Amino acid sequence: MSESKLAGQFFDAAIGLLERVRDEEAPRIAEAGTLIADAVAAGNRLFAFGAGHSSLPAQDVVYRAGGLALMNFLAVPGTAGVDVMPATLGSALERVDGLAGAVLDSSPASDGDVLVIISLSGRNALPVEMAMNARAIGLKVIGVTSVAYATGTRSRHVSGTFLKDHCDVVLDSKIAVGDAELSVDGIDAPFAPASTVVTSAIMQAVMATAAGELAARGLEPPLLRSGNVDGGHEWNGRVMQEYGDRIFFRH
Questions:
Q1: May I ask which residue range the UniProt record assigns to the signal sequence (predicted)?
Q2: CA torsion sign, 139 to 122 to 97 to 116?
Q3: Pseudo-torsion of CA 198, 202, 203, 205, nearest 10°?
């Protein structure tokens, strides 16, 4: 099989997943966007969390041109980014009980804020505990996960539950267990994961919904502009100043 044909198959698979999410998750994407708009309008804060490669879609909506300035990355040291050494440490930390609670206790997140938790499998202790503890202190939790893992795998949290069981809104990425869209003769392992493409699109769809909801209420969405466009730095400086008490990534 030619390499170009495999590339086309991957694009087709990713497009198919995006279409499914667009059509099947639309009501919940709208609900998630409304939750975020409610928090912005009420003076609350926004946070996003993900571990391992699930941290990539979370980071994609933080300090992002065209994105909401109020979205903060809730960092768990050692779990985000491929620069963690050794790389296997991040995977191990996702299974540590108590870590999420310690992070939340030392974070600025509080009652009324919104936390988006991204976890493809939703089975590890860290995202499950993060959702449980966040709701216990009054946060609204939006979970972005593959619901298929809840029936195709077993939970690694002591409760036996998954991320999806502890959220106010669940957005299903539709990714199959194993996160690999292609398999061919002569290659023993399946390959070509699409979870980052799909989950990032879900996150941007939610942010767009929130911005539109705020505008519909007569409120200016606190959006950032590109620093590579004339006037962008000045615009962003004004937004940072106006909302400085709800932005934590600049300190």
A1: none
A2: negative
A3: 130
How many Å separate Cα 112 from the centre of its chain? 19
Q: Which two tokens stand for residue 84?
A: 């963690």
Residues 18-60 have pLDDT tens digits of 999 999 999 999 999 999 999 999 999 999 999 989 999 999 9
Nearest to 174 by CA among 29, 36, 67, 49: 29
Say whether 89 sits in a helix, a strand or coil.
helix
Q: Which residues lie across from 157 on neighbouring strands?
A: none
* Average pLDDT across the chain, whole number: 94
Nearest residue to 182 via CA among 1, 5, 4, 10:
10
Please report the sign of the dihedral spanned by the C-alpha atoms of residue 173, residue 177, residue 179, residue 182: negative
Q: Order of strands, edge to edge, in the sheet holding 71-73?
A: 71-73, 46-50, 114-118, 140-145, 169-172
185 φ/ψ angles, rounded to the nearest 5 degrees: -60, 135
Cβ-count burial 139-166 (b if 16+ within 10 Å, e if not): bbbbbbbbbbbbeeeebbbeeebbbbbb
Residue with tokens 């198959």: 9
